[in-house]
Amino acid sequence: MLYTIYVAICVASMNPTQCDRHTAVDWIPAPEQAEGLSMCAQTGYEFAAESNLVRAGTYPKIFCSVGGGAPRPDNLT
């Protein structure tokens, strides 16, 4: 199953459970999809690291959406 990858950039003071597309300082779709949930997470973190998205005082949180549609609460993992 293909997953669309989204990277949320969150401020370090924010609890990871509160970080989502509405509270993140940035929400970036990765340029590629991943086959499987574990590859989605791995690819998301690699994309965040290679793209220099994470700055001092922030951290990445990866969201994986089944298929290629817009993320909805019921299809994000």
What does this structure look like?
The protein has one helix spanning 37-50, and strands spanning 2-11, 26-35, 58-66. It is globular and about 35 Å long. It contains one helix and three strands, in the order ββαβ. Helices cover 18% and strands 38% of the residues. It has one domain (2-66). The protein has a three-stranded antiparallel β-sheet with strand order 2-1-3, with helices on one face. The protein is an alpha+beta fold.
Numbering strands along the chain, what is their spatial order in the largest sheet?
A: 2-1-3
Instruction: Report the major sheet.
Output: 3 strands, antiparallel
The percentage of residues in β strands lies in 35-45%
Number of strands: 3
Number of helical segments? 1
Indicate the structural class: alpha+beta
Separation of the first and last Cα atoms:
13 Å
Architecture blueprint of SSEs:
Blueprint (H helix, E strand, L loop, with lengths): L1 E10 L14 E10 L1 H14 L7 E9 L11
Antiparallel strand pairs: 1-2, 1-3
Structure summarized in a few sentences:
The protein has 77 residues and is of the alpha+beta class. Helices cover 18% and strands 38% of the residues.
Any descriptors?
single chain; 77 residues; globular
